[in-house]
Amino acid sequence: MRASILKIKTIIFLTISLSLMSLSSKAQYFTLKNNIPSYFFNTLSFSGEYIIDDLTSANLGFGYHYPKGTIFGGKDVKAWRKNLNAWFLTPEFRFYPGRDPVKGFYLGPYFRYSHFGTKWDGKLQRDSVTLVDYTTHLSLNEYGLGIQFGYKFLLSDRFCLDLSFLGLRFSWFTFKGKFTGLINEDEIFKIIDIEGVDEEGIFGIGKMIFDFFGSDASFKMPFTFPMMRTAISIGYTF
Asked: Which domains are assigned to the chain?
């Protein structure tokens, strides 16, 4: 019994050791990169590139857009912009015609998924009287396919400069909006009466809109649009 347990432990130990040795031998083919200009757009953008062979590599990018004013603050930032956050995921396959994936020109297809979301509260007022007290939720999802061109410079044994340019893609977007709020119908009806609106005409349409926004309104709209991807990244090879 003890001998069998010892054999199992030995097999597990050898398996773990060989796996670690395999990872360490391949570690030199992995480069972690940071897109420097993204910081000017309130975004943290990183990517990891793994060299497959002399001609190809796989690159995976991830980014997070944090709300404006998070780090430096800002008094004049609008509510929707102050609460805007997003994240991006970009898998990419690269082909190096020069047969040197450590440096040189590359091209290849990539996929882009992006999600933007924001939320803010607001009021519609007239003469200091609140007519509508609402909350708005907006979200935008992107699904894109494109071709990326670029050039990677080897700065030292470990550091590189990766310039991604002409990354044209065609994207499909889905835009969603949701509104919740309270309608001060009494005050609105008073304004309608004062302005002499025909109750059988505009009044009926207005009442329908008030009921629509007073409960829970939402909408969804798909559309397409061409986009461009560029990056100036500093990378470190492990």
From this structure: 29-237 (2.40.160)
Residue 94 burial (CB count, 10 A): 21
Question: Locate tokens 């065609």: which residue?
Answer: 170
DSSP assignment of 178-206 equals EEEEEE-HHHHHHHHHHHT--TTTHHHHH
Q: What is the mean pLDDT of residues 56-85?
A: 76
What is the SS3 assignment for 215?
A: helix
The beta strands (E) that lie in 77-158 are given as 85-95, 104-126, 129-154
For the stretch 201-218, pLDDT in tens is 445 545 555 555 555 555
Cα–Cα distance, 30 to 99 (Å, whole number): 17
- Give residue for tokens 């430096």: 72
Reported as a single tens digit per residue, the pLDDT across 19-34 is 544 444 444 589 999 9
